[in-house]
Amino acid sequence: MATDLKGLKAACGQSIWVDNLSRTLIRDGILRRYIEEDGVSGVTSNPSIFQKAIHGSPYYQEDLRRPAASAERLYESLVVEDLRQACDLLHPTFLASDGDDGLVSWEESPRLGDDAEASIAEAERLRSLVQRENLLIKVPATPAGVRAFEALIARGISINVTLMFSLGHVRAVFAAYQRGLRQYIASGGDPRRVKAVASLFLSRVDTLVDQRLTAMGSEEALALRGKAAVAMAKSAYAIYQETFHGQGFAGLREAGGRPQYLLWASTSTKNPAYDDQLYVQPLIGPETINTLPEATLRLFREHGRLQPTLEDGLAEARATMARLQALGIDMDGGIAATLQREGLQLFSDSFEEMLAEVRRASA
Fold first, then answer.
1. In the CATH scheme, what is the homologous superfamily, with its name and number, of domain 5-358?
2. Where are the catalytic residues (predicted)?
């Protein structure tokens, strides 16, 4: 019997977003069905997703021949239409949740990951292009990206911080959010207008950590394979609870500030030996978001269970993190730095491939 995913938010407090956006998804009514039948309440996108969409969907071909100043501006004109339509489909959810859900994310150019000032200007420009209140601009959790994030929150711009791979990233982003929110309130802004989420990537963590553990080859190392990402996510949620439900955030909450929800990203299982719900079933809890690729969403619908699990096994998760550290797996250092660098490069490669495709199609 299929799982009624529409009950997840009411039963467990978690939102399901779909990690895909294309004209096929919109024009063929697929996104509308996800919203109506599965309770999907948000959309995430990135350069890789748009590259695949423009390459694989027939709905872009005519518009690819429109005149434009550059391939990048033509790409923007294509995806702005998609983003507006997705925002419009989710706007009733946005209103019903008082701005807490029903959101659509658009990623900045990965070329800007190390340039805070350019990231700030670009986020403002992209938001002005879409002109929808339920749009989130995605900026990476690089050092420059975190500075840009703080400045953008201080200007009242809603943000999805992406490419987070460690507890260190979580702490830095949460701290930047609170600093930005204080500045926004001090300038007379209404914090209820600001929404931020923090996207913690999971499967990529296990892929790299598993490689290191396999290379070690010891019984203790091999026993930890496939456990790092979930342990990190559970530990991150404990940090979330301490940060946003503790005294440190009480003043901002009283002023109307929203907690910065954790979003589980990269949730398709890369290792076929692992459970296809490895990054879904153990991580169900209130005030969180899981953004699922369509295949993972279908699998969750087929055999998922709607039960809160996120706070289970926290002591074990912390012990796993400590065991990894004892083996020399530096989750906050080398692992996070490598994955963030590779993630930014992957998005950059996809972005350049997409622009090359746009040039070819529009020639």
1. Aldolase class I (3.20.20.70)
2. 138 (schiff-base intermediate with substrate)
pLDDT band at 350 (very low <50, low <70, confident <90, very high): confident
330, 334, 340, 345: CA torsion to nearest 10 = -150
* Contact (CB, 8 A) for 135 and 83: yes
Q: Across-strand partners of 138?
A: 107, 160
CB 56 within 8 A of CB 50: no
The SS3 of residue 313 is: coil
Beta-carbon contacts of 246 under 8 Å, excluding residues fewer than 6 positions away, are none
Active site residues: 138
Least confident of 203-207, 232-236, 254-258, 350-354: 350-354
> What residues have CB less than 8 Å from 121, skipping those under 6 apart?
none
The string over 31-42, giving b where at least 16 C-beta atoms fall within 10 Å of a residue's C-beta and e elsewhere, is beebbeebbbbb
pTM of the model: 0.96
